[in-house]
Every structure is written in C-alpha cells, then in structure tokens.
Model the fold of this input.
Amino acid sequence: MVLIQARNITYKYPINDGQSALKNVNFTIEEGGFYAIIGKSAAGKTTLCNVIRGFIPHFHRGDLQGELIVEGKDIREWEMDELAKKIGFIFQNPFTQISGVKDTVFDEIAYGLENLGVEVSEIKARVKQIINLLGIEHLQDKNPYELSGGQKQRVAFAAVIVMDPDILVIDEPTSQLDPKGTKDIFEIIKLLKERGKTIILVEHKIELIAENADYVYVMHEGEIVHGGKMEHVFSDPKVLEYEAGLPQYALLGIEVQKRNPSFSRIPINKSQAEKELKKWMEKQEVY
Amino acid sequence: MSFIQIRDVSYTYPNGFMAVKRVSTNIEKGEKLAIVGQNGAGKTTTVKMMNGLLRPSKGDIFIDGLNTKGYTTAQISKRVGYVFQNPDDQIFHSDVYSEIAYGPKKKGLSEEEISNRVEKVAKLAGIDRYLDENPYNLPFSTRKFVTIACVLAMDVDVVILDEPTAGQDYVGMAQITKLINYLQKNNKTVITITHDMEFVVNNFERVIVMANKQIIADKNKRDVFWDFNVIEQSSIKQPYISELANSMSFESKILTIDEFVNYLFNSKKKV
Done:
C-alpha cells in the first residue's frame, strides 16, 4: 500500500539566494518499506524530511509547489497533531530531542504519552515494554544528561517509538556516535522494520545502508537523481557522479570489473562480494 | 628530542573518574597520526592534555622541550591547537569572519594581516563563501570546518582534530584529507581522533590505539588492522576491505581496494 506520494515537489526557503532547496521531486513510500536517502550535504535531504513530517509548510514559510500526499490527504490539509501521531521524527543530535524537563530516562520516555493524556497505568506499561524492547533497562532510572551519546540516542528513539507512529523519519542518527553506538541504532531500526514500521532514513554510512535498506533515493542539488531497489542503486557507478558514495564492496567490484569485464555482478555487501569473487575466481582458475 | 613527549601521564577528573592511565609516547614535528578506540577509551582526555586544556594528574607532557605544567593554557594553545569534537563547544560569534578572526586579534595582529589570514584559512577549510553567515545557520558538518579554520588561523605547530569525520559526507571527507596534507606539507604536526577506519587507511601511517584508559598499540596501520588481539581489545573495526580479504583467507595484509585488486590479479598469474 502506498503511504506517501510526492508529486513534483519544489520548495524555496524564505531567506536565500532564490535557489530552490527541492526541485521537482517525485517519490513513493510503500507501507513497511525501509527507504534510505543519500547524497552530499546541502543536497536537500533534511528539507525533504521536513516536508514529509509537515514542518514544511506548517512551521517553515517559503514557497511549496506540488503535492505530498500522506494516506490520501495532502500535507497542507493534515493537522499537525494528527500528523505527529502518524509520523515520528528522530533528530541527528539527541540533545535536540531530549526534553530537559524530566529527571529519569523512564519519565523522559513517558513524556509524549503524558502530553496526550493517556492513562497512567497504560503509560507505565507502554514505557516498560519499549524499555525492554530496546534493552535499556539499566538506563531507566538515570538522568538523561548523564548518558553517553549512544545511550542518549537510544533514549531518543525510545521516546519516539513509544508513541507508536506508523512512519519513522530518522535524520542522520549515527553521525555523532562511535561504531558500537552506531551498531546499536541499526539494531533498533531493524527491530522497527520487523514490526512493520515504515522507515525513512538519512544516513552517510553507506555500508550499513547496504546491509539493511530496501530502497535508496539519491539526492543531488535538490533533486532525486536516482532511486529504486537498494541493490540496483548501489551497484550503479553513476551514483559516484553525484558524490553520494557507494559501499566499499561495490567500489571494489567496479575496480575488478575495470580490469576484467567478465566480473559482471557488482556486489553491495560483504557476503555478496565473497560469493561473487569466489565464483569468478573459480571460473578464471585463479587458484 | 621529540616535539611532543608524553611521559607516564595519568588523568583523573575532579569527580574521581580516572580517564587516562600511565600513557607514554613521542610525536615528532611534522608527523601525522591517528588515534582510534571506543568512546570512553581516553582519547579526548589525552589530546586535551597536549594543549593544556587539562593538566596531567601524574606524569609530564613536554611540547618543544617545555613542560606544560609551567605554562598557561593560553601560552600552550599558541603552539598546539585543538579542534573540539562538538563545534558548539567552541563557537561564540555571530558571524563566521569574527569567529575566525578572534584568535589572530588576540595575538595582536594588524587588521590587514587578520583579514588575509581569515580569507586564506577559510578557503583552505572550504568555507570562504560563508564568512558573513551566522555559524548557527550552517549545518553541523560545515560548523566543524569553521572551528577547524579558527585553529588554522592561529598558525600553530600542532593541530589536533577531534573526530573531524563525524557527520561528514564524501565531499567533507575529501576536504579534511586536503587540509591534513596541506598542514603536513607545511611541517605541522597533525593528530586526528576518528572512528572511520577507511579514513585512517587513506590518510595515515602511524596509528595509536587506545582502550580502557591506555595505549594498547602504537604502530603502522597495517600492523594495527591485522592484529586481531588489538582489534578485539579495543573494539575497533577492521577496514571493510581487510575484513573481506581475511574472510577469503588471502595471504596478504590487505587494507585498500587497490591492494585487493592487485592481489587478486597477481595470484591469477601464478597459476
């Protein structure tokens, strides 16, 4: 089922040099899909997220053309509080998200539900369930500000997941984290996908996208210049022209292919690389 | 005598938390190196002691023969510049030009010299078109380049970059590589903390690995990334290409795509 459909979206911020931040953008988001948006800085990735979650046009002025349909209704017609229940947003920097008004991780995660006036017993049950799901029981009595960056980001995820939105828009969640913190966050995203959530992720760590995403959109100077099934996009050297990066395994495959065109299938992750290289080596009688 | 000497240095924060335990190493003038290891390993505390932001609780650090204990942070930071992990810990002006000009002004340079310097370093950092902007209107990754430019403007002998690669895209990475090469060409010492092992492979030879408050390895990248004890102890990741070479049982300590491809085609010739 199509959840979100963008048709010819063009957007100009109120203050700038007259350049459009988004130009004629079209895409489709299907229910339960994991979509990654890649592209260099200032390509329009965060602006696109802001349209999807309604901040454009509801909070940011500027000139929005075209249509963004969420479950059959244009983004302009959605009430923001209704949209916020449907689409959860996770920031790049967990400091931006953590409220600062709660003394414990448990209360921080409960904050959103409290604002909706949910029954106390239900809040407690739901918060507990999410804490168990993300494996952060050991953090629940701590002050959010005592936590490491990776722990804070997991709490930020919990605070959004507890609201049970259908769609999660996640903007560079791991850019401030170390490899362990990054791995934990990708585990959470995987878990959400398994629970049928629709995920839209902006991320620079291409190799991790290649292990997890279903679809990839490549942005360049405000446009979606490439998009489709992840394996299709990541095996295409054209992506490099947009300075968006490809997985190391694909770069390796492209180099092998340059030396010997009989290496035909560009791998995108480690297991594919190993399989394709071994197959090719046997044919070439390398060993 | 080495330009930076770290002699049996430990650091305990005022709250009693020991972050660095008996660390020793020497770093030469004009050398570039990477420091890697998990969060909490002691990397940032160690480099903050090099520019006097923190003073060793035990042991001594010498910069160009001078013990940091005898000098103020202001004096040391004229020789050793530190770019904070989080640019927002550092930025306090409302436009990029004033932010970069602040250090040179404090040094007492003339207006003309200041403006020349600001323009030169802004260009080097790839932010010359943002000089009139408020730094907080710029994305995180660009703010990081503002803080790098600030340190470059001080013309220090040693530049310490704390996770410059965090949140950088392909283009930002290339810009940092360019900067590091420029600094080294000008005989500056460059010390970089990073979690990006591909970045280490592409830019450095010497790698210091920290784990659990200590230096557990200080050697060539190839020896680090193929030392499975070090990798396990420090929880760092082997570069993607090395991982692949390892799981395919290649008999070579491969680090890069070029090396991988060469190995592949050379072993073919042998048959």
